Amino acid sequence: MEIRFSVLVVLIVFLVLNAAVQLRTLAAVQGLAAQQHAISPPGTDAPALEILSTRKVASQGLATQQHAISPPGTDAPALEILSTRKVASQGLATQQHAVYTVYAGPYVHVEARRNPIYSTVTQKLRLKGKGFGAAGTGEHLNLQFVPAMPKTDYKVQVLSDTALSINLVSGKSWPLASDEGTYLYLTSLIDDRKGSMNQLETPVVIARVIPTPTVMHGGEKVIYMTGTTRFNINGTGFRAKTMELIFDPPLEKDVDYMLNTRSSTHMQLMLRSGKKWRSDGKPGPLKLRRIDTGAGDLRINTKYGGVTVAEVRVNL
Hints:
Helix content: under 10%
Shape: elongated
C-alpha cells in the first residue's frame, strides 16, 4: 500500500513539472510572434521593403526562417537582415543582430571649393571629385546651379573620373548677385545616359564669384612728385583687404604709399614720408598695369601698358 502511494506521489510531481515546462514553452511561442517591418530604400519612391519572417520554436532552441523581398520596379538588392534567437528551458533569452546593406546606385562626389573667380574673365572652373566618368565632352551631363546659370552660358568637359571642367562661353558671365561676391552652388548633376535621377551626392559650393574690377582713366589728373600727398582712383569692383596694385614705374604698397579702399568704386592712395609718386624721379604718367582683387592678377589696357591714373609733375 505504501509503495503504491509513493508511486502515485512521484507521478503527480512529474505531471506538475511537465505542465510547468509546457506553459513556459507556450509563453515563448506567443512572445515570438512574427513581426513585419517596412523600410523604404533611400533615394527612391518605391514601396517599402517587405520583410516576412516565420519562426519555429523547439524546447532546446529556435530555428528562424527569413525571407527578404526586393521592392518592385528597382534593381537594388533586398535589405539583408540577420537575426539569431536562443530559447532556454528556464526562460527566453533573445539576441538580435541586424545588418543593413542598401545599394542606392552610384553617386558623384564633388569637393567644396570657395576660391574667388572673376565674373567675366575667369574662363574655366575646374572641379575635383569622384564619379565623373571617362574623359570626354560632357554633353550628356546636365548641371544646375544656385544662383541659376543657363546651359547656353557654359560647356562641360570631363577631364577624368576625378576632374571636371566648366568652361564659360565667350561673352557670358558667372552669376553674380551682389557686389560683395556670391557663392556659386552646384545643386544637381544628371547623366542623361543613366536616367533623370540627380547623381550629385550633396549640394556643394564650387566658387565665390566676385566682380571683375575696372579702372577709370585719370590722365587729366595732375599730381606733384612729393607735393601731392594723396590722390584717388575710381573704377568698379574694388574690394577692401584684398587689393593688390602694380604700377609703372613701380610703387610698393605700405612702403611707398598706403592704400585705403573706401568703396567698391573708390580707393585712395597716400604718399609715405620721403617717397615720390614716380620712383625714377622723372615727371610723366603713372600707370596702373595690373590689379588683383582676390582672384588673381588682371592686366589692364595691355595695348597701352596699363591705365594712366595720374600725370606726375615736378614740384612747383
